[in-house]
Amino acid sequence: MIENFLINYGLIAVFLIATVEVDVAPIMAGVVAHLGYFDFFAATLVAACGAFASDSAWYWLGRWRADSIRASRLYQRTGARVERLIRRFGWWQLPVCRLFYGTRVVTMTFFGIQRRPFRAFLLVDAASCLFWSTLLTGLGFILSGSAELIIGRLKRVELWLLLILLVVISGAIAIQRLVQRGEKKLIGE
Q1: Which positions, given as ranges, span the membrane (predicted)?
Q2: Angle 153-6-124 (CA atoms, 0-180°, nearest 5)?
Q3: CA distances (Å), origin 71, targets 60, 109, 110
């Protein structure tokens, strides 16, 4: 069903789905890109933009409604734990939260509640979205071509794996540098 939606509506559908399902959208976009319906790199970028738009909306919601969220019973029960995690992991929480289902929205909202500087949020989260979208779109692209492995087109897959490995390493280095810059700016504020 998602695959048909992506085929029929293209990159607009990738963006819309990525605002809700930041992990499913890039994987399916990779599959559909492998089928030739749209460009792999465009799908990756659009999925990252959809994820970032969603993350930013949750950040701003947290910032705008911080007082009422802090007054809620749910926040009274869980807020201290989430804030401890954010203090412990700092800006690294933004890319790491995508590994654990259900923590992304909470993390983005709490960064807004804490009124973390949006400029630093923008840099770290945009890099995180691009990193994860590249990884997941590549995964979808590679897995959709598993039949090619069977019929002997291994070289193409190896090149994609190398590209993904380079992107993963580059992304990790970029995120680390952005986090270090963000921490330096926060200390200077």
Answers
A1: 7-28, 40-61, 120-147, 159-179
A2: 85
A3: 17, 15, 14
pLDDT tens, position by position, 65-123: 888 888 888 888 887 887 787 778 888 878 887 777 777 888 898 889 888 889 999 99
More confident residue, 187 or 166: 166
* Structure token digits, residue 161: 């794996």
Q: Which two tokens stand for residue 80?
A: 């201290």
Q: Which domain holds residue 125?
A: 2-188
Structure tokens at 1: 């069903």
- Report CA-CA distances (Å) from 27 to 6, 117, 176: 11, 31, 25
Q: How many domains does the chain have?
A: 1
Query: How many other CB atoms are there within 10 angstroms of residue 93's CB atom?
Result: 21
**Start-to-end Cα distance in the chain:** 48
